[in-house]
Amino acid sequence: MNGNLRVGNLFGIPFYVNVSWFLVLALVTWSYGSGLATAFPSLPGSIPWLLGLFAALLLFSSVLAHELGHSFAAKQQGIGVNSITLFLFGGLAALEKESDSPGGAFKVAIAGPVVSLALFMALSIAGQVLALSGPVGAIVSLLAYINLALGVFNLLPGLPLDGGNVLKAIVWRITGDPYKGLSFASRAGQILGWLAIGIGAAAIAGISPVGNVWTLLIGWFLLSNANRSAQSASVQQRLDGLTAADATLDHSPIVAQNVSLRTFADDVLLNTEGNWRKFLVVNEAGEFIGTVAIEALKEVPRDRWATTTVQDIMSTDVTLSTIASDRPLLEVIRTLEEKKVSALAVIRENGQLLGLLEKQRILAKTVGR
Questions:
Q1: pTM of the prediction?
Q2: Longest distance between any two alpha carbons in the chain, whole Å
Q3: Which of 13, 136, 157, 304 is 20 to 30 A away from residue 224, measured at CA?
């Protein structure tokens, strides 16, 4: 992960912090430490800033608890959590996949704000019951209202905020179409982003008493992420209903095992589109059994090409990443990303090799529909 440092594991989930997190940690430490020094002048030396650091770490612990709320809700549905990352504007729980139902998506989305609001209530009650005062009381009060703000802000109805995912789940439930939910929530997020940018810009220009440069930066963050969500929704709608078979190359590099090297060189190579350096070899049943590299032809004298078959020079020591021909293209994209490969072999239900599927072919499908 670029710019991310792995800290460890939390409940089996890899935990990272982005380098931008250290900037915010320093700013919060200095800002709140200065506030404590002013409010409590009796605090000696560097104690206010040490308390400021402690408060900043507790603040980010609240963000972490928020993301763990999403993670535990996902795990209850059998969805894996790839990582949790803290960064400049908060945190992110990266899930292996989305929920299979709008109800499940709603539970995952709402879990984070529920945790934040629960922490607000718990900290507020603790402050009252224990009659906390002084620097400790100030820190507990700060954390309570930070969690309130975190919960309420994230419930705003627009992606990438949790409220946007709640809205997506609701629209999905109403329409029965998850892509319409994603598109609607993305548009709402774009509106929120532009609104925050406008408020921030007006404040910087001295036109509005509300907002500041952080409002503008948050608006930019919301807008850029909402734009990506909208693009993702458009791609998903275009790919909806298509399968791996629909994106398989028409002239995939496939050759039968019993073909002579002469026929392979004169007919197959000349009639196959693309600059392939390696071909997939199939048996009489059309099943994949190995690969043959063009360079392997050079190892056989030309006068023996007519009596030597592809099977004689093919390699069977190869692992082929495959996908069933009837799998949805959206699932194919996830498989390509998970396996970190650029192509997959598409296999029919009867085990026959249909052909190769490449990322570029999927991109062409998104443009062609």
A1: 0.76
A2: 97
A3: 13
Q: How far apart are the first and last CA of the chain?
A: 33
Type of residue found at 168? K
Per-residue model confidence as pLDDT tens digits over 104-130 = 999 999 999 999 999 999 999 999 999
- In Å, how far from its chain's centre is CA 293? 36
Tokens of 105: 């998506």
**Contact call for residues 165 and 185 (beta carbons, < 8 A):** yes
Question: Which pair of tokens denotes residue 60?
Answer: 């980010």
Query: By the 8 A CB rule, do 345 and 227 touch?
Result: no
DSSP reduced 3-state for 90 = strand
Decide if 67 is catalytic: yes
Which residue is it, tokens 């004689």? 312
Q: How many CA atoms lie within 13 A of 106 on its CB side?
A: 10
Q: Are residues 302 and 266 in contact, defined by beta-carbon separation less than 8 angstroms?
A: no
User: Quick one: DSSP state of residue 45?
Assistant: T
If you ran DSSP here, which 8-state letter would residue 320 be given? Answer: -
pLDDT digits (tens, 9 = 90+) for 173-229: 999 988 899 999 999 999 999 999 999 999 999 888 888 888 999 999 999 999 999
Q: Which of 151, 130, 155, 149 shows the shortest CA–CA distance to 140?
A: 130
Instruction: Supply 314's token pair.
Output: 């093919």
CB within 8 A of 223, min separation 6: which ones?
A: 189, 190, 193, 194, 196, 197
The side-by-side arrangement of strands in the sheet containing 343-347 is 322-324, 343-347, 353-358
Residue among 67, 96, 295, 349 flagged as catalytic: 67
Indicate the length of the chain as a whole number.
369
Average pLDDT, the chain: 89
- Rounded to an integer, what distance in angstroms lies between the CA atom of residue 89 and that of residue 367? 33
Q: Do 248 and 331 touch, CB atoms closer than 8 A? A: no
Cα atoms in the 13 Å half-sphere on the side-chain side of 195: 9
Q: Which residue has the tokens 């922490």?
A: 119
d(C-alpha 168, C-alpha 188), whole Å = 10
Cis peptide, bond prior to residue 160, ω within 30 of zero:
yes
Q: Where are the beta strands (DSSP E) in 286-349?
A: 288-293, 322-324, 343-347
Return the CATH number of the domain spanning residue range 244-368.
Answer: 3.10.580.10
